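RECORD TYPE: inverse folding
INPUT: structure tokens
STRUCTURE:
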């Protein structure tokens, strides 16, 4: 359960990074 939460959090961080890169 904890591993799944960490993976989801990691995926969200990657998504946010890509969104910031694309916005620039």
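DESIGNED SEQUENCE:
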């Amino acid at each position: 359960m904890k591993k799944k939460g960490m993976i989801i959090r990691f995926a969200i961080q990657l998504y946010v990074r890509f969104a910031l890169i694309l916005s620039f």
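NOTES: The radius of gyration is 11 Å.
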